[in-house]
Design a protein that fits this description.
binds magnesium ion, Adenylate_kinase_lid-dom, cytoplasm, binds BIS(adenosine)-5'-pentaphosphate, Adenylate kinase, ATP binding, alpha/beta, AMP kinase activity, binds zinc ion
């Protein structure tokens, strides 16, 4: 059985960046509610479209994501879960459907998060992340991996970023405290370089 890894962190903490590497290194599935919702932004559901929540930086209703996660985990032989759970009721749901081998929290200060998110550029073809300062592509606006066009996510404007951070504080920090209280949370310094962050994560997982 592959490792079952939960990666927690604020918007911009580097969950996507590290999950991509983890999925390759440990040969597990990258399960991410954010990407799944973006791929189905205009899907009509009983709650409305994902876009109507995401553009404002709000959480989509639990029912929308619980189903996505349950189906994805059922199909996976090991996974890194990124972007879920984001509130206590999702955390309870997760406890009912799976066990976890590691719970990691990427810790980054708020000022740094704002700069990372407003400067992020994403490949419209393959989803690889870049940053206008911290992680520049060889050619401006062009993906190093596939030549696709780099774009800014709709929710990466300063105003929406501030809203996402306040939603995180209110809804997701209690989830982090919940795992801390259970004694399973491992905190990782997310302000190091991506390579250093990855080394720290590997050191934890190789013991798990
Ligand atoms: P989602 O897509 O999950 O967004 P998020 O949690 O806000 O996180 P991000 O993807 O913005 O950041 P990240 O931690 O992945 O950082 P990244 O690696 O890209 O969710 C989007 C929306 O979907 C939500 O607002 C909500 O509406 C909805 N949603 C999703 N899940 C939901 C759920 N469970 N329930 C309800 N609603 C849900 O890095 C960021 C930038 O920093 C990049 O430019 C990168 O190059 C750079 N960077 C990364 N690491 C470093 C480093 N170490 N040093 C310097 N720069 C770095
Ligand atoms: Mg992400
Ligand atoms: Zn690309």
């Amino acid at each position: 059985m592959g490792k079952r890894i939960l990666l927690l962190g604020a918007p911009g903490a580097g969950k996507g960046t590290q999950s991509k590497r983890l999925a390759e290194t440990y040969d597990v599935e990258h399960v991410t509610t954010g990407d799944a919702l973006r791929a189905n932004k205009d899907m009509e559901t009983e709650y409305g479209t994902p876009r109507s929540f995401m553009e404002k930086g709000e959480l989509v209703p639990d029912g929308m994501v619980n189903e996505i996660v349950e189906a994805a985990l059922a199909d996976a032989d090991g996974y890194v879960l990124d972007g879920y759970p984001r509130n206590l009721s999702q955390a309870e749901y997760l406890t009912e459907i799976t066990d976890l081998d590691a719970v990691l929290y990427l810790k980054v200060a708020e000022d740094e998060l704002v700069e990372r998110l407003t400067g992020r550029r994403v490949c419209s073809e393959c989803g690889t992340n870049f940053h206008v300062k911290f992680n520049q592509p060889e050619e401006e606006g062009v993906c190093d991996e596939c030549g696709g066009e780099l774009v800014q996510r709709d929710d990466d404007t300063e105003e929406t970023v501030r809203e996402r951070l306040s939603v995180f504080e209110e809804n997701t920090e209690p989830v982090i405290e919940h795992y801390r209280d259970e004694g399973v949370l491992v905190e990782i310094d997310g302000e190091q370089t991506p390579d250093e962050v990855f080394d720290d994560i590997e050191a934890v997982l190789d013991d798990a």
